[in-house]
Amino acid sequence: MTMRQRERASLQLILLAVMGILCGCASEKAILKQVRTPYTVMDPAFTQSMSHLLGAPMVDGNRIQTLVNGQEIFPAMLEAITNAQHSITMEMYIWSNGEISEVFVKALSERARAGVKVCVIVDALGSSKLPNRSIREMKRAGVVFTKYNYPHWWRFVKRFNHRTHRKILVVDGKIGFAGGVCIHDHWTGNAEGKPFWRDNHYRIDGPVVPQMQTVFMDNWIRMQSHVLHGPEFFPATEKSGNSLVQFFESGPHQGTENARLNYLMAIAAARKNIRIAHSYFIPDELVVDALVEALQRGVHIEVIVPGPIDAGVVKAAARPRWTRLMDAGAEFYEYQQALYHCKLLIVDDLWVSAGSCNFDDRSLRINDEANFNVLDPVFAAEQIAIFEMDKAVSRKFAPEELKRRFFLKKIYDHFWGLFAFQF
């Protein structure tokens, strides 16, 4: 990412922050008191509580394949699309013009012409660089294509600040994909360096996939006003593996506090270790308190954050929150090899949460998000290995580095910290 591109990204975030203040659209925080649990993530009481609290039951018999970077992610998604027989549903935040976009346009169009029901939601702002010719090509082929929350002038105040940040693909109601990747050339390759993204995505097979389809349907009905149903979209599913999984939504309309509650519950149940890998790690005060309490009861906490970043003001807003955590004993690492876009939480070598949700107020209160939770020591071990791989090319830094920053830089950090509720 060039200096000009970074400046443009920062200006876009500043605009979102200012317009967010003027337009609102953020839900109020309902959880104001600390969550504490007498049980761990290993206790059935934890999974039972998460099933009910997040509105999506933990279901057994799933298989999850971890896809690392675009060189693994895009071929797996395109293979599933190419082999689709009945339906394809996709909800995507960023879809930008480029080589990978053309491949997806042609693959979706070909399946639609073959009689597969193809339904696509893209965020209106996130897809602003998707050419109209690409949209027309898909629509002519039979793809039902819609833009989420287009900020028409008569709905500008209500819609501008509320985006869908979800990245969901469901094929034939049986195969699901979710994670952090968007359709943009910067996600291609193997994160060889800037401007490319280092990211994880996941292929999911098994009984939890209908939950993914249900999350897609929420915004589909909101935008299209009709219901997709029947065996093309909700077929009978069979067990494919041994992972206990739930897939849940969050956003101002549905599951208002789901994403925040998910993190608070997992932190409260931690007894041994917490690993956090997040592209935008700006925890609010309640989450910081929860992490400090975990450190005080002996939980080892490691956090990987971006070194190079697409929006410097986000990192500035985050730094004041990091100081207190580092003073309490949390270890921080800055990923150096490329732009970092992972969204991963691992607790006690057993519980994993991943998906589209960042660790910031925009994801926790403003945008529509979709995450999945997994209780499986084998899957957790795979994620730990990936975490350690990323940590090996990261730079560890200490709280003294932040404290020694020139006072004008500290003022800069605290100034942007005032807008953290919009990042």
Helix-strand layout with pairing:
Elements: H1 3-23, H2 44-53, E1 59-68, H3 70-82, E2 87-92, H4 99-113, E3 117-123, H5 132-141, E4 144-148, H6 156-159, E5 168-171, E6 175-179, E7 197-198, E8 200-205, H7 209-224, E9 243-250, H8 258-269, E10 273-278, H9 285-296, E11 300-306, H10 312-328, E12 331-335, E13 339-340, E14 343-347, E15 351-355, H11 361-366, E16 369-375, H12 377-392, E17 394-397, H13 399-403, H14 407-417
List keywords for this structure.
423 residues; Endonuclease, Chain A; two-stranded parallel sheet; 14 helices
Low-pLDDT residue spans: none
Strand portion: 15-25%
Count of DSSP-assigned helices: 14
Biggest sheet layout: 15 strands, mixed
Can you identify the CATH superfamily?
Endonuclease Chain A
Measured as a percent range, the helix fraction is 25-40%
Question: What fold name goes in the CATH topology slot?
Answer: Endonuclease, Chain A
N-C termini distance: 20 Å
Tell me the radius of gyration. Answer: 20 Å
Q: How many domains?
A: 1
What's the count of strands?
Answer: 17
Query: In the CATH hierarchy, what is the class?
Result: Alpha Beta
CATH architecture: 2-Layer Sandwich
Overall 3D shape: globular
Average predicted confidence as pLDDT: 89
Task: Report strand order across the widest sheet.
Answer: 4-3-2-5-6-8-1-9-16-15-14-10-11-12-17
**Which class best fits the helix and strand makeup?**
alpha/beta
